[in-house]
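Q:
Just now I want nothing more than another pair of eyes on a protein record. Here is the record:
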Amino acid sequence: MKRDAESNAEQDKQRREEVETKNKADNAVYQTEKMLADNGDKISDENKSKLESAANDVKEALKGTDSAAIQTAADKLNEIWQAVSTELYQSAAAQAGAEGGAPGGAPGPDPTAGAGAEEPAAEEGDSASDDKGPIIDAEVVEEKKD
């Protein structure tokens, strides 16, 4: 049984790579369809048609058994994804900039933080005021002397 496993190891490895390639490609198609459903109104028609076309190419490649064709189609879809993601991020940043916040709807950094911020006054001998570098977590072990 061990000899059979060793003799089929290369075939098993190849089969595993094929299955992983198909799973990744199928997941990319699912994520693309989900993004188009959720953010379709934020994507230009040109990029939307590119994504749909690339997703359809991956679906067609998945119908076959050629792992290289599947990988090529999935790579093309990923390249288009990156371009569309950049577009979405830039439009979100522009919108947030117009509203005065940071991308993602979070408020921007406070320009007054750290400059004149109120902190409790430290007394002499207070360890908080003695900055001696980073704190290192260590355990002290005492050696027993005979």
Observations:
- Confidence is low (pLDDT under 50) at residues 107-127.
- Residues 2-99 form a domain with the Substrate Binding Domain Of Dnak; Chain:A; Domain 2 fold (CATH 1.20.1270.10).
- The CA atoms of residues 101 and 110 lie 11 Å apart.
